[in-house]
Design goal:
The structure is a homodimer.
Chain A: E1 6-11, H1 27-36, E2 44-49, E3 61-64, E4 71-74, H2 83-94, H3 108-112, E5 114-118
Parallel strand pairs in A: 1-2
Antiparallel strand pairs in A: 1-3, 3-4, 4-5
Helix pairs in contact in A: 1-2
Chain lengths: ~120, ~120
């Protein structure tokens, strides 16, 4: 079975609620860097993106993939230290055809911090 | 200029924080019905959809349109009484090529209740 490509979009501008004048890399950028360094299935691409407008619940990651998968936005990642759990949940997503990972298989963080989801472009009837 | 089609996706299962055992149509369904009855530009389609997983801040509407527009999720609509303001903001979105309505032109509700946004499929470089 060939899987449709999946895009992981990591908001690299996110400050995760920290002061706007702080120096050094932002938590979002650090999370993105840690995710880029992970091993991913061949059909998954990790990209950084500008603000996902989920600043009250950042850091944020959006994931989508093809016309038949739901798009998800997950929030409340703290930074690079959450890369492993984010990777786990995102790889599970990438292993589905419709983006729907069974509830009990989702990492707890994914269950509790789903910000929104958007139906597939090819809406199921 | 021909505009790419726009889809307005209204979560019709939303109870907007009301008890789960209440009878009668749900706020989300009432909002959807009111929006379906509005006049829209020819390239806009309004559809109902199941849960957008934004239940803490529902009722919710997602809007998207083509590979070059940002997708937005807006929340905290109370029901049919917010159809006029939702219509106003969504028509403005539909009038853009990239989904980015200038901040000052967005209805106040849209400014304050953006739940998340997702970059265009064709990411700008």
């Amino acid at each position: 079975m060939t899987m449709e490509p999946v895009e992981v979009l990591v908001c690299s501008t996110c400050r995760a609620g920290m002061p706007t004048d702080m120096e050094g890399p932002r938590p979002g950028a650090q999370l993105a860097e840690a995710l880029l360094a992970k091993d991913w299935p061949a059909h998954v691409t990790v990209k950084t993106t500008e603000c996902l407008s989920n600043c009250d619940s950042g850091c944020s990651i959006a994931v989508r993939g093809g016309a038949d998968r739901w798009t998800y936005v997950y929030g409340n990642f703290t930074g690079a230290e959450d890369a492993a759990l984010a990777h786990e949940g995102l790889v599970k997503y990438a292993g589905t055809e419709d983006g729907l990972v069974p509830w009990r298989e989702r990492p707890v963080h994914f269950r509790k911090n789903c910000i929104a989801r958007i139906p597939p472009l090819r809406l199921p009837e």
